[in-house]
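Subject: Protein record for review, amino acid sequence with backbone structure tokens
Category: Structural biology, sequence-to-fold work with a learned token vocabulary.
Format: Residues in single-letter code; tokens as whole numbers, each standing for a residue.
Body of memo: The sequence and its backbone structure tokens, given next.
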Amino acid sequence: MGLKAGGPLFAVRDMKMSLAFYQAVLGLEVINDFGANAVLTGGLSLQTLDTWASFLDKSTGNIHFGGNDAEMYYEADDFDTFLTDLKDHPEAELVHPPLEHRWGQRVVRLYDPDHHIIEVGESLEKVAKRFRDGGLNEEGVARRMDISLEYARKLLK
């Protein structure tokens, strides 16, 4: 079929506010700004609500925000620093406080200005290395993270 990978697109009520949020809170940069559409680093595009509705041949009232049915996922190079920096952004409403999943990855989820969910997590490589530095061998890391030994070895390189 010849399809190329794209990325998610979020409809937004206020492009300027949304761009400011993604730049300030997540550190994303604008790759292309077409006015009604902006493409950001990290694979996300934003589309103004009115143009999105027109693409779908819907009224803006037929577009609903805050469905809690999807998220955009990012990994932080330094999760602890991200959490510290996040405290400087009161505009970032948390979905839940930072938590640790059963496989050991620490994450936080927050809402953007239109209540799209953004997850920021610790990279799996950092998780594996944290467990190794805490005394687990490769097999222990694999068991703790519920992954194959081969994948644990890859993460620990």
